[in-house]
């Protein structure tokens, strides 16, 4: 690294001195070398991953790729919104045909699909024909582990709110409120279409998480489980389908529960599953022997988070358990997705991702004994009565494999 910097500095110094002394034909190769070294350095990408399109050495520097990351994220969003992956489910199709179905301009759609083929989401097969590449399969609405709805939410409400990250960093207030004039959950209650996309996206993520949690934790000793902030109930119904002796209640805001009741994915659980609308800052349903909070505590800063925990503590049996499913911010400085997710919480809800020590402080303050942190592949036998269980899910969960291995078991 130092040697490279020295070399670059020497070349630049040479060029400055040589100006007017050497001829252009002598200086040209040196200038070329100097520029190529500046341009081609450090191509490892964020988190050590290889950046899209880097295989031919023609990609811009990593910093520039980071700054233009939203070009790609918006392109992926548009593909999700137009439902292109669903249209390519049965094989390659001509772009002008796709344009007619989606009501888009054929030449502009071609440019979108060409760019996304370079990103290996589609495959440019021949002429103006495109097919679905394996990464793009998760953009299909009904694919196991579908990411279509969550990508649509990210490309719409999140994208607009993130435009105010600077405001959040300056003031500590959410970018969301400064964009939409209200909080995320209040906005969703008044916008049924946005709420449907958001809740479906959360549900898709929850179905994958549920399988990861099932691998990590033995639910066989739990007879009654309440999923607090459980959205459309996908997480709970997945657990219940694999534990036919258990019953459960999904608890969420009344408007979310109304939407959830219209979906059919609970049917296999029959009367074992109930749904209650309410406000977890006020109270949560009583009497269960376990309460799960999956991706809920990270939505809130410490004071409101403590209030939710306090209400769970008040509602649960003496030997009750609290199951938290959250990511953990590691103490080391290396790249980790949880650190970006933390910024997302700052922008969207005013919440935060926490380190293990921060979780321990929060939980111990509210009557939960110091607990254990299990990875999803941890020994499932080590649950502890009366303690909080933390399922650390920031390790790479192979979502495709999980969804395909387990989705048919229920
Ligand atoms: C990030 S989502 C969690 C996803 C959810 N666990 C799932 O499995 O899909 C947060 C959830 O908290 C719910 N929520 C927000 N404020 C609430 C409140 N005051 N009372 C009850 N639920 C609330 C939201 O409606 C949303 O479903």
Structural write-up:
This protein is of the alpha/beta class. The protein is 49% helix and 12% strand. The chain has 18 helices and 10 strands. A 7-stranded parallel sheet has the order 6-5-4-7-8-10-9, sandwiched between helices. Strands 1-3-2 form a 3-stranded antiparallel sheet. Helix 12 (192-216) packs across helix 18. It is globular, with a radius of gyration of 25 Å. The model is unreliable at 42-55, 372-389 and 391-410 (pLDDT under 50). Bound molecules: S-adenosylmethionine.
Descriptors for this entry?
alpha/beta, 3-stranded antiparallel sheet, 10 strands, binds S-adenosylmethionine
Bound ligand species: S-adenosylmethionine
Radius of gyration: 25 Å
Give the count of helical stretches: 18
- Number of separate strands: 10
Query: Quick one: overall form?
Result: globular
Show unreliable segments. 42-55, 372-389, 391-410
How big a fraction of the residues is strand?
A: 5-15%
C-alpha end-to-end distance: 54 Å
The portion of residues assigned to helices is: 40-55%
Query: What structural class is derived from the secondary structure elements?
Result: alpha/beta
* Largest sheet composition: 7 strands, parallel
Q: Please, what is the average pLDDT?
A: 82
Oligomer: single chain
SSE succession: HHHHHEHHEEHHHHHEHEHEEHEHHEEH
The order of strands across the largest sheet is 6-5-4-7-8-10-9
């Amino acid at each position: 690294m130092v040697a490279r910097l020295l070399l670059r500095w020497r070349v630049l110094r040479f060029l400055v001195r040589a100006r007017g002394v050497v001829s252009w034909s002598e200086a040209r190769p040196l200038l070329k070398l100097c520029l190529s070294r500046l341009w081609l350095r450090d191509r490892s990408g964020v988190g050590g991953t290889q950046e899209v399109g880097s295989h031919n050495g023609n990609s811009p520097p990593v910093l520039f790729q980071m700054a233009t990351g939203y070009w790609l994220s918006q392109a992926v969003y548009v593909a999700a919104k137009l439902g292109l992956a669903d249209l390519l489910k049965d094989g390659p199709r001509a772009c002008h045909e796709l344009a007619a179905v989606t009501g888009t301009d054929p030449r502009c759609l071609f440019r979108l699909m060409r760019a996304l083929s370079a990103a290996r989401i589609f495959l440019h097969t021949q002429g103006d024909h495109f097919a679905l590449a394996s990464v793009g399969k998760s953009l299909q609405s009904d694919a196991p582990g579908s990411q279509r709805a969550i990508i649509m939410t990210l490309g719409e409400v999140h994208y607009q709110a993130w435009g105010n990250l600077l405001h959040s960093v300056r003031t500590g207030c959410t970018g969301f409120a400064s964009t939409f004039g209200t909080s995320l959950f209040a906005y969703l209650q008044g916008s049924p279409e946005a709420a449907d996309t958001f809740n479906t996206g959360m549900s898709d993520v929850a179905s994958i998480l549920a399988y990861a949690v099932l691998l990590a934790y033995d639910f066989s000793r739990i007879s009654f489980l309440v999923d607090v902030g459980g959205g459309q109930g996908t997480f709970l119904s997945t657990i219940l389908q694999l534990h036919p002796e258990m019953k459960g209640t999904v608890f969420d805001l009344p408007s979310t529960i109304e939407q959830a009741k219209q979906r059919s994915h609970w049917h296999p659980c029959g009367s074992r599953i109930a749904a209650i609308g309410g406000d977890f800052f006020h109270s949560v349903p009583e009497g269960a022997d376990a309460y799960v909070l999956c991706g809920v505590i990270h939505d809130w800063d410490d004071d409101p988070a403590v209030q939710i925990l306090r209400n769970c503590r008040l509602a649960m049996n003496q030997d009750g358990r609290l199951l938290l499913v959250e990511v953990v911010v590691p103490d080391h400085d290396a790249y980790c997705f949880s650190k970006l997710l933390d910024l997302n919480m700052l922008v969207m809800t005013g919440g935060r991702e926490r380190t293990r020590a921060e979780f321990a402080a929060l939980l111990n303050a509210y009557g939960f004994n110091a607990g254990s942190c299990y990875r999803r592949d941890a020994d499932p036998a080590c649950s502890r009565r009366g303690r909080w269980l933390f399922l650390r899910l920031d390790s790479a969960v192979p979502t495709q494999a999980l969804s395909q291995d387990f989705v048919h078991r229920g």
